[in-house]
Known about the structure:
Blueprint: E1 21-24, E2 28-32, H1 49-52, H2 59-71, E3 77-81, E4 86-88
Antiparallel strand pairs: 1-2, 2-3, 3-4
Amino acid sequence: MRIGFDGTETAAQEKISGPSKEHDGPNLRLIDVEELCASARFCHRAGGIWNLIPKSDDPALKKTAVEEACDCPSGRLVVFDKKAQQIIEAELRKSIGLIEDPWIG
């Protein structure tokens, strides 16, 4: 069955609007726009990204925090590298994916 997906649409690159919270750590700053949450829970993998940010001077915990933010399907979580002065984003190919949530059926 064909659905007509061509993958050319892109997300806007506008500044985050609406209420957001910032969480500062030694190497990372987390920008969290809770109202965008899709409840996919990728951010809870290692005890919660909010607990990892304050420990981001540990390279392994920093890497995990970045992975959790980049795995967020809604864009709720944005990680800013304080040393490089830039947002960290994953390089992803265009695709559509299905996320199932066994917790809510």
